[in-house]
Amino acid sequence: MSITLSLFLAAVTGADATVPEPDKEIVVTATKRARDVGMLDAPVSVATAEKLTDQGIVSTQDIQRAFPGLIVNMRGNRAYSNFTVRGISSPDYFNPSVQVYVDGVAQTASAFSQRLLDIDRVEFLRGPQGTLYGANALGGVLVITSRQRTANGGYVQATGGDLDLGGEAAGTLVLSPQALFLDMAGSAMWTRGRIDDAGTGDRNIDSSREFVGRATLRYAPAGSRLSASLTGLRGRLVSHEELYLLPDDVDALVYRSDVYGPRPYLRREMTSVAGKVDLRTGPVTLSSVTTFQRTELVRDFPGGRPGPLLSWPQDEKLWTQELRAATNRAGPIEGVAGLWFQRNDFTGDKSGFAGFFGASTNTVVATSLAAFAEATVRLGSRISVTLGGRYSHDRSRIRASRPDTFGNGMGFSFGGTKRFDAVQPKASIAYALAPDVRAYATVSRGYKPGGYNRSISSPIDGVGYRPESGTNWEAGLRAARLANDTLSLSLAAYRIDSRDQQIYVGQLGQQTIRNAARARSQGIEAEAAWRPDTGTSITANVAAGRSRFRRFVDPFTAMSYSGNTLPYAPDVIARGTAERRVTRMYAPVSVSLWGGVAYAGRMFFDEANTATQPAVATVDLGVNAGFGDGFTMRLLVRNVGDRIVRTSGYVVGPTQFSTVDVGRRISLTLRRDF
Q1: Within a 10 A sphere around the Cβ of 94, how many other Cβ atoms?
Q2: Is 4 in contact with 596 (CB distance < 8 Å)?
Q3: What is the pLDDT of residues 494-516, one digit of tens each?
Q4: How far is CA 570 from CA 125, 163, 277, 548, 564, in A?
């Protein structure tokens, strides 16, 4: 969890600039029907394009700075990013506990970490969202929406700094007035790196480069009942980031290839295609969303000892189809219902280890069929009741083999199929204490589907595992306009009981996944935004709680971890920002000064609670300036104190090996809107 505490920067006086309106003006679509955020009976946070731009939030890793209770960590590399919400995360890279959608496209787990291109807003639903989103929404859902202009326009920008160099451009071309539009966006970023190799003497070995481009053709005639869009995206990431450092080398940012192995290599190719059609028929909108995403991963990594790199190329394809009907008018009854299909094909080929075992290959095909519905009924002017449910049928099939290359019995060949049925209900009640103040109570359920371990090491991976489920009990309060329309506030208290948790068990290097644990996460969340005048904005959020294993005994080692803290789940997280905007009367220049502080309590990376990152606070500072005629400048300093923070780790004997965030980053971005 993360906490942000505010750091206020005083600015010189002058005429006020414009700041965002309070939350009531923000419309949320993550509920699969457009609803005013101030009227939602759920813990929802929204980051607008203005907030993302002003605070330099340019990737999904940065999104955690905007929301309460969210942690995003790289577990070795960006293809294995870990999203933790309310203490809920997933040890399994390939079966996450949080879902990420970009323009309606469900992202494969290896594509969670990516650049944000020309974003309109990001919506964050906390807690189990199984009714509307099904599998892998056990912790929550991030819904990222790109900008859709209705006139010719866009921007170009260039970024340079001590580590980063790149550029970005986006825009809309009107092909037919008020009817047909072409949205385009592209980005290229090179990162120099900051880690040196003591084994070879090479410097800045953790370099990377990332390219992404997107195009959307939109048919959206003004006043028409029919609209449609077709989106294509292509991205490429090349990096050397899977570097594990010894304890004494963390602060010095030194890697030892003579101890751990040669510099790693990662290449990720990402392709997405999505088609959407909406048809308004009276009070109902019928929608069809069809998506395909493929991520091809080349991962060459050291084996934790001197010698050649090991190779594990992966190819993952994800198809989804959703058909739904949703009300498009406010009324005594509002709702959404639909059908869902998903197919995920995964293939992985692991290289062998000379003298011990040969190369292996495995294929996992997982499919899901679901039907869902959710409705909100208003009982008078103050009370509303929401009921929903989802039924899912999941199937997973594995085929795996490894020849006995060295005649030592280390080969195998197996296959299997598992089927599961699951129901995710939801019920909530809300009461309007005042026109802009609502209290609510919710019970909901989420789950992760069962299946097979995709990182196979032995025939025990052919056994498979059952679904994991979590039940969320929650009460909250949302106040959209307090203190003369200057303050918005959101409070929530929750308890999530997880059953059949899918955990890696067994000895390191020979681990498999089993339903080995029960856990409980409980806590409180608070989120506030204060705008005392049109030039000042102060925001703060805090998430405090406990996430513990109630029962967990490793069936292979007999080690008990009952009572331990869940991985990647600190007890306290807080974040806060303060911003002052000023416009000089004697010059067409507007200036925004802002600062932020983020604090995260002690975090463990493993179930044994041996690999850890101590509690840490970091400070960010920024200056944004607008010079008129669409030209702006942003100077950003991340992690002013240059704190080196561990992002993942594991322990062998007395030694912890850790990957790290490399500390302070300084960047200057010049942008021209047109």
Answers
A1: 22
A2: yes
A3: 999 999 999 999 887 778 999 99
A4: 20, 29, 42, 11, 12
| C-alpha torsion 82→69→563→606, nearest 10 | 20
Residue 315 has pLDDT above 90, yes or no: yes
Give me the pLDDT at residue 539, please: 93
Tokens for 127?
A: 């807690």
Nearest residue to 468 via CA among 501, 490, 443:
501
Cite the DSSP H helix spans in 226-368: 257-260
d(CA 255, CA 207): 13
Asked if 643 and 618 touch (Cβ cutoff 8 Å), the reply is yes
Closest residue by Cα to residue 370 from 301, 332, 424, 305? 424
Spatial strand order in the sheet of 98-102: 44-48, 119-126, 140-146, 98-102, 105-106
Q: Across the chain, which distance is largest between two alpha carbons, in Å?
A: 83
Cβ–Cβ under 8 Å, residues 569 and 547: yes
Res 535: pLDDT: 86
What pLDDT was estimated at residue 21?
40
Q: What is the pLDDT of the chain when averaged over all its residues?
A: 90
The Cα–Cα gap between 628 and 671 comes to 11
Beta strands in 75-195 (DSSP E): 81-85, 98-102, 105-106, 119-126, 140-146, 153-161, 164-176, 180-191
Write out pLDDT tens, residues 442-479: 999 999 999 999 999 889 999 999 999 999 999 999 99
Query: Which residues neighbour 407 within 8 Å (Cβ) at sequence distance 6 or greater?
Result: none
- For the entire predicted model, the pTM comes to 0.91
Please give the Cα distance from 116 to 277 (Å, whole number): 24
The C-alpha angle 273, 276, 281, rounded to 5 degrees, equals: 175
Q: How confident is the model at residue 19 (pLDDT cuts 50, 70, 90)?
A: very low
Q: Which of 641, 557, 633 is nearest to 590 (CA)?
A: 633
| Backbone torsions φ then ψ of 395, nearest 5 degrees | -135, 140
Q: In whole angstroms, what is the distance from residue 512 CA to residue 27 CA?
A: 43
Average pLDDT over residues 372-383: 92
Please measure the distance between the N-terminal and C-terminal CA atoms of the chain and give it in whole angstroms.
39
| pLDDT score at 305 | 82
DSSP class of residue 358 equals -
Whole-number pLDDT of residue 589: 83
E strands, 380-467, in order: 383-402, 412-434, 437-448
Residue 1, pLDDT > 50, answer no
3-state secondary structure of 352: coil
At residue 74, does pLDDT exceed 60? yes
Looking at per-residue pLDDT, the higher value among 280 and 582 belongs to 280
Q: Are 568 and 85 in contact (CB under 8 A)?
A: no
Q: Phi, psi at residue 665, to the nearest 5°?
A: -135, 135
DSSP class per residue in 567-619 = TT--SEEEEEEEEEEEE-TTSS-EEEEEEEEEEE--EESSTTS-SEE--EEEE
H or E segment and range at residue 494 = strand 487-505
Q: How confident is the model at residue 381 (pLDDT cuts 50, 70, 90)?
A: confident
**pLDDT grade for 328, boundaries at 50, 70 and 90:** confident
Quickly state the pLDDT bin for 6 (edges 50, 70, 90): very low
Please name the residues in contact with 515: beta carbons below 8 A apart, sequence gap of 6 or more.
Answer: 465, 466, 468, 500, 501, 502, 503
SS3 (DSSP) at 62: helix
Instruction: Please state, in angstroms and rounded to a whole number, the distance separating the CA atoms of residues 323 and 293.
Output: 18
